[in-house]
Amino acid sequence: MIHIIRNSIPNLFTISNLFFGYLSIMYSAQGDYKNAAILILIGMMLDSMDGRIARMLRVDSELGKELDSLADVVTFGVAPAMMAYYSYFSEFGVAGMAISGLFPLFGAYRLARFNINAVKSSNSYFTGVPITAGGGLLTLLTLFQGKMPEIILPISFFVICYLMVSTVKIPSLKDVPLPKYGIIVTLFLGYAIYIVFKKEQHRFPYFIYVAIPLYIAFISYQLVKIKRNSNNISKKL
After folding, report:
1. What was the pLDDT predicted at 232?
2. Distance, CA of 99 to CA of 157 (rounded, Å)
3. How far is 14 from 37, CA to CA, in rounded Å?
4. Residue 80's beta-bridge partner residues?
5. Does 12 or 209 have the greater pLDDT score?
6. What confidence tens digit (pLDDT) does each residue in 127-140 have?
7. Which phi and psi angles does 25 have, rounded to 5°?
């Protein structure tokens, strides 16, 4: 029984990531882009945790890898594309639907390519921008598009789509204990803390008040673990 529970823990994080992606789509459809962005933030937190927890518990599985890819397509492909569609591309009618749909298509292709080349790929770099980073960037650009020239969003949209399927080498942070997409997550966290201190917390989902402390605790654990390992190595030397 304990073995089954331990095997299920990483998958619960992945499924939660998928569920938050779905909720983000629902908020985008209602025009609530702040909540939609926050839910994608939480998805990014969970995405950076599930694989590390699986390795920590030594329960890596093919099922977990497949679930992770499916969750990524929804949370970092479809959800950011829906934000971009409702906030900008919807004014172009059917053409806007088709254009915004390119993002999850390119992202899914990038994920499929990564999955079949995972064994042969290097730990030092990614080939093409990962869909998580691409989705996070598109979400940030959509959320703050009112504070910058309107043309930046569509140009960035096509650039990110291209970079996901390109062969550009992107430095990998797989061996770093902190989140893989630390800059984007940090920006989101800063924004989330800002809105809480503005006393607007009643407008936002309660998930964020559970997710942020959980994420900070996870990062702290990773840092303590690294420090202990480095101390042990020093003692052996």
Report:
1. 61
2. 9
3. 18
4. none
5. 12
6. 888 899 899 889 98
7. -60, -40
Taking the domain 2-236, which CATH number applies? 1.20.120.1760
AA identity, residue 48: S
The residue assigned the tokens 């983000």 is 24
Q: How confident is the model at residue 71 (pLDDT cuts 50, 70, 90)?
A: very high
Alpha helix (H) residue ranges in the chain: 2-29, 33-57, 62-73, 79-87, 94-100, 102-117, 131-143, 152-165, 182-197, 207-236
Give the pLDDT mean for 147-157: 89
Q: Rounded distance, CA 184 to CA 42, Å? A: 12
In sequence order, what are the residues at sequence separation of 6 or more whose Cβ sits closer than 8 angstroms to the Cβ of residue 153?
84, 88, 141, 142, 145
- Token digits of residue 57: 């518990």
pLDDT digits (tens, 9 = 90+) for 16-45: 899 999 999 999 999 988 888 888 888 888
Residues near 121 by Cβ (< 8 Å), separated by ≥ 6?
114, 127
Q: Give the C-alpha separation, 51 to 138, whole Å.
A: 23
Q: For residue 107, give both structure tokens.
A: 């992202």
**Which sequence spans correspond to the domains of the chain?**
2-236
Averaged pLDDT, 7-13: 83
